[in-house]
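Quick one: structure for this chain?
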Amino acid sequence: MSEKEIVKKTNELSVGLEECEYRFLRRKSILNQNIITEDKKGNVVAVPARTVFQKIYKEEVCTVPVM
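Got it. Here's what it folds into:
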């Protein structure tokens, strides 16, 4: 595989991962769920996905009504 092909595949993979992260956070936001991450000190914390989604993507999401 040439250097050019490696760069192309790496770029395609990066785009796919970014799209996957967007869909994951958007879905978690719509369902009003948390994601597990770490704070600046390395402690495990649960954070509302909506907070993270809005901070990263600057978009509002609607929630699904609970039945």
